[in-house]
């Protein structure tokens, strides 16, 4: 079949189209305007929040001098002795209200005098004020008292706890009293309690489980759980042990900083975290006592325990500090999580208005913590140094305190699951030398060495 006729027809149609007048172009459909990209202004990140440099904490001696009126000390010393004698006379006459008033007046001059505190606690016990009795007695035990005074105060604490229904606590107090002094009355009360099923085991080294999983501000969370106490006006967290929370920027470019969070000392490979912090408890009387805590945080729970405390009444010649010097994570026992080695210092400076004596003590101690399992546990604690100075508080007055300086030290090494404690030539050892397995050290925890109020 020939294709030529189709080609001729196509050419004719093409010519016709060229000769026809041009048709009006159709109106174009409306379209959305083309968006022009506008550059987004750069959001300036908020400036990094730099915590203020840590202020050096006043020494115990500086704290003591802040509340000491040297010009009035001689008159105050005589007033103290008079009030102490008046309190004893009143209690002997069973005038407990007058005795409490006299002991309280004495303690306004020398707020940490262990005998005055113990006798105030006993007078309050006899008057039926058990909470006040326990508070004063625990302060007497926490102070730097001789063994016979602390032993007597521990017996008093046992009687108080018995009447408050804490039979186990009373038995533990009696047990500690007997470790300081032999006494048949204390033995009989302890035997009676244990025969009735009381447990004399001390729980000073226990960790307290806290509610909640992820917690940033550990100090604030712990303070929120503390019961009301009429003697305490305010609990304050040490700002030097927190850091600013995470900063985020909203859609408008406004930065927001989260709540402060406690500084973490160590985070182990599996996420377990270790921290320490201080709670300042401000008293109605104007002074304070600080409690230093250790916290161990697991994924869904956390635990706390008290490492030490420091009482600063703000009056008299007394000052105290308790500080954490270092927190190290080390492999001391093969397998499992790392262990934690904590070095601490207790600094104490106290004048006795009754005997016109001054005593200054600086102790350094080491504690080892195990983290294996579901909860932390202490593996032991020991002192590595102790420096003691005694002398008259007022140089121009008779004193029962001879001027004396002493230092006791040991060297130590921790590895392979044990602690080797060795004597330092020329120094009396502060801890018995020897080789101890972790878990079998001279003291079970810092509280067992006497650095926690009431422990």
What does this 3D model show about the protein?
By secondary structure, this protein is α+β, with helices and mostly antiparallel strands. It has two domains: 68-195, Alpha Horseshoe (Serine Threonine Protein Phosphatase 5, Tetratricopeptide repeat); 208-449, no CATH class. The protein contains ten helices and 17 strands. The strands form four sheets. It has a seven-stranded antiparallel β-sheet with strand order 11-12-13-14-15-16-17. β7 and β8 (273-283) form a beta hairpin. It starts with a helix and ends in an 18-residue tail after the last strand.
Brief overview, please?
This protein is α+β, with helices and mostly antiparallel strands and 455 residues long. Helix content is 29%, strand content 29%.
What is the mean predicted local confidence, pLDDT? 85
Note the main sheet.
Answer: 7 strands, antiparallel
Please write the string of helix (H) and strand (E) elements: HHHHHHHHHEHEEEEEEEEEEEEEEEE
Task: Provide the helix percentage.
Answer: 25-40%
The tally of structural domains comes to 2
Q: What is the 3D shape?
A: globular
